[in-house]
Amino acid sequence: MLWSKYFIPTFKETPIGVEAMSHQFLLRGGFVHMLTSGVYSYLPLGLKVLRRIEHIIREEMNNAGAVELFLPCLQPVELWKQTGRDEVLKDVMIKFTDNRGRAMCLGPTHEEVITDLVKNYVQSYRQLPVTFYQIQTKFRDELRTRFGIVRACEFIMKDAYSFDRDLEGLKKNYQLMYEAYQNIFRRCGLDAVIIEADSGAMGGDMSHEFLVTAPIGEDTILRCPSCHSYCSVFGERANGAKCPQCHKGVLKGEVAIELGHIFRLGTKYSQAQHAQFLDEDGKQKPMIMGCYGIGVSRVIAAIIEKHHDERGIRWPGEVTPFDVEIVPLAAGNEAGEIVDLAQRYYRELTASGYDVLLDDRSETAGVKFNDADLIGIPLRVIIGKRNLAEGKVEIKDRRSGEAVVVDKNAMSQKVAEIRGGTPCLKN
Ligand SMILES: Nc1ncnc2c1ncn2[C@@H]1O[C@H](COP(=O)(O)OP(=O)(O)OP(=O)(O)O)[C@@H](O)[C@H]1O
Ligand SMILES: [Mg+2]
Ligand SMILES: [Zn+2]
After folding, report:
1. Interval 365-424: pLDDT, tens
2. CATH architecture of the region 3-220+250-309
3. Beta strands of 43-181 (E only): which ranges?
4. In CATH, what is the architecture of 322-418?
5. Model pTM greater than 0.90?
6. Ligand 1 pocket test: which of 39, 137, 298 has the largest number of ligand atoms within 8 Å of its C-beta?
């Protein structure tokens, strides 16, 4: 991609009232744009990151045996009355009457819709188990929107739902999702803390939250300074209690942000909505359900919270919008040669499977470097007059800040070496 043909509106100034580093860099780097409080547009660069995270999620979900589908945002409130959640969720549900006079809502989550769908198609134990997932927009009328896409009114979630004959099956599916979540967060460059949690308004007998420690977190998790284990006891009230694991350390609260939550639901929804199947023993039974959510847009913010310095983002390799950024510093007599080499590099790296951004703008070195630091592409190839006079170019690692000067004909080889020889999948 050529910078001049793309759309990366960067800003030097920190917008007023923006507290979180992730929010600041997302706005200044031209990743997202706020339409109104809690409602965001994804600009091309932000969309690219989103697609890469979605790609990881799809791989791990498919790998765990889940099947992708796509459910509607627009839903009849009538359906929600079957479980009573039109009341339970009334504070976050965005409701309205359509022109035909029907009470409708924009889905804050999809348990009711998926249960209704599965009930229509699954009648026999032979059709079970089945796990569906989708990556889709959710709507919640959050009173306190915070930190940009971290707590928004319109956001993107991956939600999955499993349907089983019995508790054994649910346990198996739950474990598969648990492991898929571990893989997803690891590949996103996140060190997720997993704790047993409250099932809350969702219902069910067991749930686990996947959190990442970060200053923007709204949850407190407890950690033992002695054995370093995290504790399932929730909330600040347990702050100062003895660690149940080693009985030595005194638990300390750490602020963390929730990125994922998985639930063993049981029959709460299938019973209320009469989603039954005919079992092998000839009896009608309610399906045993689980549900599994990840805040995809919130994950982007969490990655930035964990991977930045004072100048900007430092994307982990699998979620970066581009793999390599080429920065030609074309000026004066050598401009033609520098531009030619930049274009050759662009073709070379692209042919090797890298997703390449070429900063072909006629901006100063200072502007280009500042923007490169801000948007955070892992590798930068700098073609400057002084190095080129000796037949060399510079490769800089955004993460470590280290730079190497290599022969101009050894650039591709060096990039492959640094990236471990396996360029990211393009999307
Ligand atoms: N308003 C929101 N904006 C962005 N992401 C959200 C929002 N609400 C929830 N999420 C994400 O969706 C995931 C699954 O949704 P779930 O209903 O379990 O969240 P929740 O318990 O309401 O989250 P929270 O406690 O943060 O409100 C959450 O783990 C979180 O990552
Ligand atoms: Mg919530
Ligand atoms: Zn301990």
Report:
1. 999 999 999 999 999 999 999 999 999 999 999 999 999 999 999 999 999 999 875 555
2. 2-Layer Sandwich (3.30)
3. 67-68, 74-76, 94-97, 103-106, 130-139, 154-164
4. 3-Layer(aba) Sandwich (3.40)
5. yes
6. 298
